[in-house]
């Protein structure tokens, strides 16, 4: 496969936007129980018996709510992604100005990642279950989903295409600094995040495009 | 352990991965391919196969960036250098036949092996960027208060992100790359 056809393949293989799952109450209970199990035992050592026990229901009842462990995991990933993106959108859109929006977005995303017990357990003990979905074609698709979801929150300060660029860059910064095997820079607190973002990130997003061409 | 012997082991391990199409060759296979004894390999890599494979991935990462640097040559300034480096690196990555073969068969393992090389890559790339930033700082081109070490780390991390997951950025479009380099990557570093 030549570079050009492979690039085309990778571009066209980016899946469409993730449909936010509409979980009924029982599925939400099963997802919450799965996340608690993942935070304690990881993915390989969690089975649906553990999830049923954690959810306080029988195995038979759990099977009426979700058909399999992969299906429950898919629901959990999709609903967590939607929840975090909602929090991120809210943090950006609620900021008083563009620099604060970038700081709020990065700090919120970093806190969601650092405080996510299930994600942190998997990163520490079963990293392939996470990193396998963050790189190359899947990473590309995730980057596009995040940027698409967050871009509208920048509408008060930036035209749509620049809003997308800002959202894309915010996602990259968080990915590059917070989802790494070794800790790099703790962006969960404003005291560290703000000076870093003011120095390196905000001028590149807030500066007028014409001024630096 | 001599560098030469270490390179033989890593090249042998890489050859095994390429031949078998799996990231899990045995130590016997690696010993045979590299011409280094099993005992020596275990002495140098007490973690066994996983440690050898992780090191072999790091070795190929080094080779990737050495080959890239040789193609890039010198450029008048750091921005021009990055504008040339990003599309070239993306092409080289897409041309890496073994990487794509492995991503088709063992995507989670390969992505994880590379994730564990992330800091190594940031360091390698940052070390290549830093003298260029220091030179431009001496020429008065950088914003006041910018530390070349922190700046080269930032540019390395984000350039690697664009290289592996460009998202909707088209690294073959010189106008798009110029804007990325001069705004998102260097906007906070250069005057």
Can you give a write-up of this model?
The complex is a heterodimer of chains A (213) and B (191). By secondary structure, chain A is mainly α. Chain A contains eleven helices and no strands. In chain A, 69% of the residues lie in helices and 0% in strands. The longest helix of chain A is centred in the middle third of the chain and has 25 residues, at 69-93. Chain A is elongated. Chain B has 191 residues and is mainly α. Chain B has helices at 3-20, 27-34, 38-44, 49-72, 78-95, 97-105, 107-115, 118-138, 148-164, 174-185. The termini of chain B are far apart.
Keywords:
heterodimer; A: 213 residues; mainly alpha; 11 helices; disordered C terminus; B: 191 residues; elongated
Topology:
The complex is a heterodimer of chains A (213) and B (191).
Chain A (H helix, E strand, L loop, with lengths): L2 H10 L12 H17 L6 H8 L3 H7 L3 H25 L4 H17 L2 H9 L2 H4 L4 H15 L9 H19 L11 H17 L7
Chain B lengths: L2 H18 L6 H8 L3 H7 L4 H24 L5 H18 L1 H9 L1 H9 L2 H21 L9 H17 L9 H12 L6
Strand residues, percent of chain A: under 5%
Distance between the termini of chain A: 36 Å
* Strand runs of chain A, count: 0
Residue windows where pLDDT falls under 50 for at least 5 positions of chain B: none
The succession of helices and strands of chain A, N to C, reads HHHHHHHHHHH
Uncertain regions spanning at least 5 consecutive residues of chain A: 9-18, 209-213
User: How many helices of chain A in DSSP terms?
Assistant: 11
Kindly provide the radius of gyration of chain A, computed on alpha-carbon positions and rounded to a whole number of angstroms: 19 Å
How does the overall form of chain A come out from the CA principal axes? elongated
- Overall pLDDT metric of chain B: 93
Q: Look at the helices and sheets of chain B and give the structural class.
A: mainly alpha
Span from first to last CA of chain B? 47 Å
Approximate strand percentage of chain B: under 5%
Q: What is the assembly state of the chains in this entry?
A: heterodimer
Q: What string, H for helix and E for strand, traces the elements of chain B in order?
A: HHHHHHHHHH
* Helix content bin of chain B: over 70%
Largest sheet of chain B: none
